[in-house]
Specification:
This protein is of the alpha/beta class. The chain has helices spanning 6-19, 46-49, 55-60, 62-74, 76-81, 86-96, 111-115, 143-153, 179-191, 210-216, 243-247, and strands at residues 23-27, 103-105, 122-124, 127-134, 140-141, 166-170, 194-198, 220-224, 237-239. Bound molecules: zinc ion. Zinc ion binds at residues 134, 136-137, 139, 159, 161-162, 164.
């Protein structure tokens, strides 16, 4: 469908949200840009300047592990100071009203949790960069702990329990998608009556298949994004503007 003018789009969005019983949001980078988290994939984004380090290279090379950690620490001012934006707060409001059981996200910034969702109610398809885990035994490590040792020794520490490699809890290129999260996302997509694709260009498969799963299961599909997506044609409503501006009216305190 063709995006209506913004005010009319927000009014239609409100009607659909009010009529829905079970809303499942699927969020991408666009919901966090107003919080100062860059969209790594966008033109001029981090990934156009630095080649992402594939999972295989991280495992194979101590130098790559150190480089990966140096990049993560360089981004820390952005991640550690970021606070939820209007989009996150609007979804948290609808969660409190009982409309949203859980949110599916491609983001790794922990901002849905910071807005009031419990960990269990955030389905992270690409993991979380605000803490680290051992790749072998899954023991959790805080970034400050890793950084202290990295700066003292000049390279990344290994797991104190098993000697495995410690990595941010994100899913790297070439790393298997998290099966539990993928399955939960699919179940949520099937069970909702309104699916909100928010701030995602919907190009990263297999994650981008969830809007279609929802649509085929009978849900309405709304796409909220600054730019057009390949799925606009099959959506029931497309609202095209900055996420914060569109969702701000849904914040309740
Ligand atoms: Zn371990």
């Amino acid at each position: 469908m063709i995006a209506p003018p913004i005010e009319s789009g927000i009014a239609q969005l409100r009607n659909l949200v009010e009529a829905a019983d079970v809303i499942v949001p699927f969020t991408g980078a666009g919901i966090s840009t107003e919080c100062g988290i860059p969209d790594f994939r966008s033109p001029g984004g981090l990934w156009t300047k630095y080649q992402p380090i594939p999972f295989k290279a991280f495992i194979a090379s101590a130098d790559m592990r150190s480089e990966s950690w140096r990049r993560r620490f360089a981004m820390d001012p952005q991640f550690s100071t970021a606070r939820p934006g209007c989009g996150h707060l609007a979804l948290a409001s609808l969660h409190r009203l009982g409309k949203i059981p859980a949110v599916i996200t491609q983001n790794i910034d922990n901002l849905h949790q910071a807005s009031g969702f419990a960990d269990d109610n955030v389905v992270e398809l690409h993991g979380n960069t605000t803490y680290a885990t051992c790749l072998d035994c899954a023991r959790r490590y805080e970034l400050a702990w890793v950084r202290e040792r990295f700066e003292a020794a000049g390279n990344a520490p290994d797991c104190v329990a098993c000697g495995g490699h410690i990595k941010t809890a994100t899913i790297s290129f070439g790393q298997a998608m998290p099966e539990d999260a993928m399955q939960r996302a699919e179940e949520l997509s099937r069970a909702c009556d309104l699916f909100l694709a928010i701030g995602s260009s919907l190009v990263v498969w297999p994650a981008a298949g969830f809007p279609l799963v929802a649509k085929r299961s009978g849900a309405r599909l709304i796409i909220i994004n600054r730019d057009p997506t390949d799925f606009d044609d099959v959506a029931d409503l497309v609202v095209r503007a900055d996420i914060g501006r569109i969702l701000k009216p849904f914040i309740t305190h």
